[in-house]
Amino acid sequence: MTPEIALVLTLLVSALILLAKEILPVEQVSLLLVAILAASGVLPADVAFQGFASTTVIMLGCVMVLSRRLAESGLIARLSARIRQNTRPGSRSTLAWLMTVSAGLSSVVTNTSTTAVLIPAVSEMARRSGVRPGRFLMPVAFASMMGGSATLIGTSTNLAASGAVSRLGMEPFGVFEFAMVGLVVSISGIVMMTVLNPWLLPDNPEDTEHLPAAAKQFMATLVVPAGSRSIGMAVGDLGLDARALTALAVSRDGGRVAAHPRRKLREADRVIVRGARAGLLDALGDPLLGLDLDVPAPLDEPAHFILAEAILLPGARWIGQTLRSARAELGSNLCILALHRRGQETAALIERMRLKTGDVLLISGPRDQVEALDRDPDLSLLMPPEPGPPSEREGKHTVVALISAIAAGATGLLPFSVALLIAVLALVLTGRFSLQDMFGMISWRILILIGGMSSFGVAMQTSGTASWLAGNVVSALGGFGPVALLLGLGVLTIILTQPMSNAAAALTVLPVAIGVADQLGADPRPFAVMVTLSASLSFIAPFEPALLLVYGPGHYSIRDFLRAGIPLTLVSLCILLVLVPLLWPLGIAAF
């Protein structure tokens, strides 16, 4: 092992730890890798930065813009509403239709946008069918991932992998190269989740309701202001029970004491409570207590002020920050009232809590500014704003632009990156949105992550790390045949998707896969396809943004994702092992 290989492996392990523990945001980890690779001389500076100027970054940015425009136009929401009106109530038939729509839409729109827009309709149709929303939400999110794997633009993973294989000396993937595999996986997944739904996602005894979103339990801090009549009163006399609020602890003089019902309150005491948003909102108007923050919204929530719930997506800039820091960054007009975190009930002051992926923030503010948060790449509103009528026409322009770009790229009339860029520029030049709006629709965090990990993939190849790892893989599995090697690479990729993003896992394993093919004297393309689709079809844990969106609304636990996700992942992996060698011949004997 050379010093360069040792350094690259050390960086890989360090990156996995940083990402798994969310010590640093994903884009910082990506930039740190690039900086170390360039400073150490493993990569020349110009090569280290090439990942940020690749066609992959251009294509992905354009796809983000077009997907966001389609989601905001209301076309998807109107389609789901029409399906809701025309579908007869029935658990299995309704779920099959919803999963089919989700898979179809996500083949041209990002799976995150598809899932976010469908959540309200899916929840309502589940209730109409007499089942809890959690029985439908996870399968619909799974379907968006399966459908997204069918086309080049369906997921950022496919786009990133296409750029990576191009830099590694192969032809980039075609727009519909994965269509057959994606179709078979989607059909199999829909049948499996529809037939086995009662067993894979059984009713939760603690969630037999068809609870409204307002029943979600948030944590907040109430303060005893100076001159309040509550000074000297007992915690049990504050009327918290009437608001369905539970006192968890009392913060006093820098320490915490138990929130015993007979505990006498003092001036400046902070009462840490847990309860539904309705009770917390009612507490705002209590003359005895007030929330420990400056609340811009009047208590009666006039038309221009609203409450909204926003979920923190993986890699968000606020991860690791305190709630107080997040409040300061939002500005004076928007205010975070409370925090919901699944599986955790803490007596800590929420202002000091470090935010994590999947936290749900209860935000108050002017309607237009709260709705604008839906454009923030780090947040997703759990109830997206309803689109206005004018946006439907705008959506039709976006559909025409997107279809034209796909047609031009698929027929070879233009390079796909050029076709997508022209589509976006056409919408800008015709006044559909401004350049500033366009920049706001792009998740720069994801672009930085993919750009940096692309450079890391190049470093793995040029340093000899990929060949070294490939040699070890071949030594361990080569005796069982090429199909066993495909299986090993697929499993390795799926494992890495847990601490890393799907795209980052694919970019990390692709050089190894091509190294394995080189050592076997096989065609590298099926190995690259196996890694790419394995990364796109990992359903094990709710770390993919589409799955994270339904984690809270579906009242899921990690066990639910394991129960439903592991079988679906195994089925998808088996399909890949059969179809990949058939559609992309290995060039050597399979056994």
From TrEMBL:
Q: Which GO terms describe its biological process?
A: potassium ion transport
Please report the stretch or stretches of sequence annotated as the RCK C-terminal domain.
206-290, 294-379
- Offer an example of a GO molecular function term for this protein: monoatomic cation transmembrane transporter activity
Query: Which InterPro entries does the entry link to?
Result: Cit_transptr-like_dom, DASS-Related_Transporters, RCK_C
Report the transmembrane regions from the record.
94-119, 139-161, 173-196, 399-430, 442-461, 473-496, 527-552, 564-584
Q: Does the keyword ATP-binding apply?
A: no
Q: Which UniProt keywords apply?
A: Membrane, Repeat, Transmembrane, Transmembrane helix, Transport
Just give the chief location class. Answer: membrane
Give the superkingdom in one word: Bacteria
The topology of this chain with respect to the membrane is: Multi-pass membrane protein
Pfam families, per database record: CitMHS, TrkA_C
Kindly list the places in or outside the cell where this protein is found, as annotated in its UniProt entry: Membrane
Q: GO terms for CC?
A: plasma membrane
Q: Does the keyword Nucleotidyltransferase apply?
A: no
Q: What is this protein called?
A: SLC13 family permease
Origin species, per record, is Roseobacter insulae
